[in-house]
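Would you kindly consider the sequence and fold I have copied below?
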Amino acid sequence: FDLPAASVCLAELDLEALACAMPPASALTPVPRFPPALQDIALVVDDTVSAADLAAAIRAAGGALLAEARLFDVYRGGQLPGGKKSVAFSLAFQAVDRTLTDTEVEAEKARIVDAVSQRLGARLRG
């Protein structure tokens, strides 16, 4: 074949076997028709309470309208008593069938704060 003195490689692929080994296509979620209502909360808790435990308590109390709870800040400092920290979350409330009212969002937020207060001794900062 008059090839230059270089390495030559040959491969054969079984495309059917590769296609069978691929994971199934993930289902896409449709873009929501109604906008989320965003609320930020900062909760003061004991230093021993982990942010993960607090996030789990928020999600458990959130119900169907809580679409997302995202941690965005942990603060320890002079404005807080010793042994305490402030943990802040951004909450997104969303219904699939309507735009939520301010009253609905405030009620959901109050229910979450009450639940984490009872479960972990958290209090709303500010």
About this structure: The first strand starts at residue 37 and ends at 46. Helices lie at 15-21, 51-62, 102-120. DSSP finds three helices and four strands in the chain. The radius of gyration is 25 Å.
